[in-house]
Design goal:
Largest sheet: 6 strands, mixed
Order of helices and strands: HEHEEEEE
Distance between the termini: 18 Å
Structural class: alpha+beta
Number of strands: 6
Oligomer: single chain
Radius of gyration: 15 Å
Shape: globular
């Protein structure tokens, strides 16, 4: 059996799963509409960037108890400040900039959680 470190050497870029807080569902819907109609990008703020992600990794999102969509990371910036164009809130931290929204053909049931998890399915 391979250790996690050996797995990372062979598969250096991995995907992660995060939960959209219920209080942000409406804002997420608005951001998605802006992205589709105005060709805007989105960003996700994290306190700590997972070691096994990079440009090209996908972030999968838990919403309404399902993993329903994902976006591709195209830029990572540490200790940055960004203003959300939908809410005008200022977010500070490590920012993962994303585009290429894709919906899963078969959403995966998943309870929401804090932080992130590495993708566990094929």
């Amino acid at each position: 059996m391979k250790t996690f470190k050996q797995y990372l050497i062979e598969n250096p870029i991995r995907d992660i799963v995060v939960t959209i807080p219920k209080s942000e569902y409406e804002n997420d819907d608005l951001e998605t509409q802006r992205m589709k109609h105005h060709n805007e990008n989105q960003f996700w703020t994290m306190r700590k960037i997972p070691k096994a992600i990079g440009i090209g990794s996908r972030i999968y999102f838990v919403k309404y108890g399902m993993i329903e969509s994902s976006m591709k990371i195209f830029k990572i910036e540490r200790d940055k400040e960004e203003t959300c164009t939908t809410t005008n809130r200022v977010w500070k931290g490590n920012l993962l900039y994303m585009n290429d929204l894709q919906y899963l053909d078969n959403p995966i049931p998943c309870k929401g959680f804090q932080g992130y998890r590495y993708k566990w399915w094929n």
